Amino acid sequence: MSAVSNFLTWKKGNTLVSWVLFRLLIQVLFNRENVPRHIELLDDTLTDHCSRQKRSRWVNTINFLVGPRLVRRLIENRLNKNMAKHERVFLSLDKELKQEDVFSKDKNLRQKWGNWYGNHFSEPLQFFVPGNGAYEDFSPEAESCSSYDYQGLAEVVDLVKEAETNGKKIRAVGSGHALTEVAQCEDYLVCTQHLNQTQRPARDCIKAAYVDGFEVEVNYCNEKRTETHYLFETGGGTKIRHLIQALTYHGYALINQGGSSIQSISGAIATSTHGSGISIGPVPAFVRSMTLVGKGGKVYRVEPTDGITDPDCFEKDEMVQKHGITLIQDDEKFNAVMVGIGSVGIVFSLILEAQPEYRLQEERIMRDWEEVKAEMQQGDLYAYINAHRHFEVLINPYRDLEAATEAEQQRKCLVTTRNYSEQVHEKHHAGRERNYISTFISGIAISGKLSPWVFNKNHLSIPRMTNNSIKRLVDHKGDAGGGFEDLARNVLDQGLGELKFYGYAIEFGFPIDRVFEAVDRIIAVCEESQRYDQLLAAPFSLRFVKQCPAHLSMMQQGDMCMIELVSVKGVTGSLPLFMRLERELLAIGAVPHWGLSVEPWYREMVEKAFPRFTDWEKEQEFFGGDTFRNAFLDRILQS
């Protein structure tokens, strides 16, 4: 009887979802005024009748249905009526953006590499894909992951020497996540996708005090405690999503991560990528040792002065001697290479600090920004932020002045908190899930191309649509929250799906005591541009990050609030608005993100934002020199 009951429940759920999706499609095509009400109905239906597995199946089904070119042509013809030429949507001739291109090891001429936004690309003289790790069929269970790729290391050394013999520059590239030209090079480019063979707990030549875990002091929820952390060795070209798989296989987890996992770990470190948590540093803060190939093909293992490597054991190691690896344990040099913007050499491998796998409870609540702002300003701001392991705020830069009530017209924000959880849940339950509608839509292949059309078609409604998108992010069940509880890797990944390849952002750091000044300036600029129908198509975020000693980290000077402004590629007016916002924020002391910027970089600006830049410059000459400089860095040095 239970089997019959389960079948009927499954059948009922699928029938309801099918019916609601069909009705929503009819409204989109013939009665758009009713679309918001039907989205609400779809939201409730997905929450009550659709588990994660079912949601994935529905996404795959929809992607199959909209795959044929004829279907896409019908949709775009319907949508493009009365649209300006530059704002039309094209579904039938364009392919969707994907996570990364896969480059062949056998083709090193006439290659083209570009960043994911498409504003920078390189057609290098030669393109190399060294290393022996698996990429498309990556598995941490592979036997090769337990060994060090010395053959790949020798390949990289030879490439650097070849570049210098031919008088060429050389640089490594990862996933192309940066909006700036930080990764570009027109001479020799090295794709790092196969520099990912090593995926293992770090034990070789490690000091005894670190081999089986070590105690660290943390300060979460305004309470100091100790945790046992571990060392994990990974390849420099490993994608973060693969690194998460490898850590999970060994029972570990990243201490923190950004909202997306498509980047390579070295790229994230090189630009000081971060998550949120005022007591948690950015990704480079987890690095305990870095092996890189610098100018002259010299190989260095660089660590802090009191590093994790046993020097005597290291110097006696047969493979270390064979490959001429030099151990450097020096704070100044380590702080220079930790955030090296690709100019200190090719990062071949890393030893990261990790912690045992853990769970997080996330709570997201929609509130009025002025109310939250008043709370934050009442007492000790640091204590307020640190009341949770993670605290961040998503703010609508606009008020919805067309809303029915004065309360609805207030500027809205989403407050997100995350804390450790000891709960373990086996079955689906809406009260412990992230809102379904946002992650459901983001998995549909054409959603990225439809998004700019929606915003351009209804640009005057962007304030209301932004409020709706904030509401969609509230954790279910019910608009009052209820939380999302899961393994940390699932909670910290924001589940942007296909949409993340169509969004782009600029980001800036401010000391936490200046965050409200920066927010007020952003709102003022956005509202002034709104009069000219130029609007951002997304809320902006406040994320708080612990100080990091790396010379070029945005957090080098102290604990920072990182403010990320986001829009969607193709929305009219967003790019010039980004440029105005960047100029305004730099004028009041913002520290720009090395990978998320749209204005030109020059020396005076860099030295003001990064006081240790001249110190980093000396170490860059030691490790990378002219061999690893590119046009982006040269313009800074020479301006």
Using DSSP, what is the number of strands? 21
- Portion of residues in helices? 25-40%
Structural class: alpha+beta
> Taking Cα atoms only, what radius of gyration do you get, to the nearest Å?
25 Å
DSSP helical segment count: 22
Q: What's the architecture of the largest domain, going by CATH?
A: 2-Layer Sandwich
What number of structural domains do the residues give?
2
Q: Enter the CATH topology name of the largest domain.
A: Uridine Diphospho-n-acetylenolpyruvylglucosamine Reductase, domain 3
> What low-confidence regions span 5 or more consecutive residues with pLDDT below 50?
4-12
Subunit organisation of the chains: single chain
> Which percent range describes the beta-strand content?
15-25%
Shape: globular
Please state the average pLDDT score. Answer: 88
Assigned CATH class of the largest domain? Alpha Beta
Distance between the termini: 77 Å
Biggest pleated-sheet summary: 8 strands, mixed
Organism: Cyclobacterium xiamenense
GO cellular component, one term: membrane
GO molecular function, one term: D-arabinono-1,4-lactone oxidase activity
Keywords: FAD, Flavoprotein, Oxidoreductase
Task: Give your account of this protein's structure.
The protein folds into 2 domains: 122-357 and 601-638, Uridine Diphospho-n-acetylenolpyruvylglucosamine Reductase, domain 3 (2-Layer Sandwich), CATH 3.30.465.10; 359-600, Vanillyl-alcohol Oxidase, Chain A, domain 3 (3-Layer(aba) Sandwich). The chain has 22 helices and 21 strands. Strands 6, 7, 8, 9, 10, 11, 12 and 13 form an 8-stranded mixed β-sheet that branches. α18 runs antiparallel to α19 (574-587). The protein is globular.
